[in-house]
TrEMBL record:
Keywords: Signal. This is N-acetylmuramoyl-L-alanine amidase. GO terms for molecular function: N-acetylmuramoyl-L-alanine amidase activity; zinc ion binding. Residues 58-221 form the N-acetylmuramoyl-L-alanine amidase domain. PROSITE patterns: PROKAR_LIPOPROTEIN. CDD domains: PGRP. Residues 45-193 form the Peptidoglycan recognition protein family domain. Residues 1-22 form the signal peptide. It comes from the Bacteria. Pfam families: Amidase_2 (PF01510).
Length: 246
């Protein structure tokens, strides 16, 4: 990847992204060590590793935080233009996002996973493909959750590619704790006053929610938000299929 191309993409993203989706807790809480064990209900989908998008590992803050399990999923969009080439443009776009997040003090790319419009699934925050790693994606609600970002802008009137929706559902079905109902509700406690819920306040949310449900934002865009019921049903179907197959 040519340096000048990365800088160009980064500059194009910077203004739009500052008001977009990913907002961590400040500071990032680093609790006592907890053992995290992954019990997938469905097979892991194909996840494109960080080396494919040339993640800047030298700038990543060391010391990952692991959660007990994944109780909920927050869906985001990155607010990028939607006309990118999945093979040629995505690596530079992800690297630019990582660089911005690190510059903001968020340790690494904030999202656990990013999906492109062609259905490609990328590992975002380091370690997310193998452990329940805490990200920096939803202020006040990063604990025991994952953030999945759709690469693009999916405001009202935009079309969300079916391949992208399927990819989001595949990640959620795989990462959510088997005891969690993807069609159900979850009780989470806010850890930050910056969210819609003051610190210490309990929120009852959909297991698969949009960023806007807990933060003052339009993220993940109206079109993608309207697709969340379809994603929930698809996740439930994938889990049911895995149960029968087992």
């Amino acid at each position: 990847m040519r340096p000048h191309r990365v800088k160009l993409v980064s500059s194009l993203l910077s203004l739009a992204f500052l008001g977009a989706c990913s907002v961590p807790d400040h500071p990032v809480q680093r609790p006592r060590h907890t053992r995290a064990v992954l019990h997938p209900a469905v097979l892991r989908p194909v996840v494109i590793g960080r080396t494919a998008w040339h993640a800047d590992e030298s700038s990543v803050r060391k010391g990952l935080v692991y959660d007990h399990s994944v109780k909920a999923v927050f869906v985001h969009h990155t607010d990028n233009p939607n006309d990118y080439d999945c093979k040629k443009d995505v690596p530079a776009m992800l690297l630019a996002l990582e660089q911005q997040h690190i510059a903001m003090g968020w340790d690494d790319l904030g999202y656990n996973f990013v999906v492109d419009r062609c259905g490609g699934i990328y590992e975002g925050r380091s370690g997310s493909a193998v452990r329940d790693v805490r990200g920096a994606h939803t202020e006040g609600f990063n604990t025991d959750t994952i953030g999945i970002a759709a690469l693009g802008n999916f405001g009202a009137g935009r079309k969300v590619p079916r391949a992208m929706l399927k990819a989001i559902a595949q990640i959620a079905a795989w990462k959510l704790d088997p005891s969690v109902d993807p069609l159900g509700k979850v009780r989470l406690v806010s850890s930050n006053d910056g969210s819609r819920y003051p610190k210490g306040t309990a929120a009852t949310l959909n297991v698969i929610s949009g960023h806007r449900d807990v933060y003052e934002t339009t993220c993940p865009g109206q079109a993608l938000y309207d697709a969340l019921p379809w994603i929930r049903k698809t996740v439930a179907a994938l889990r049911q299929k895995a149960t029968y197959a087992g």
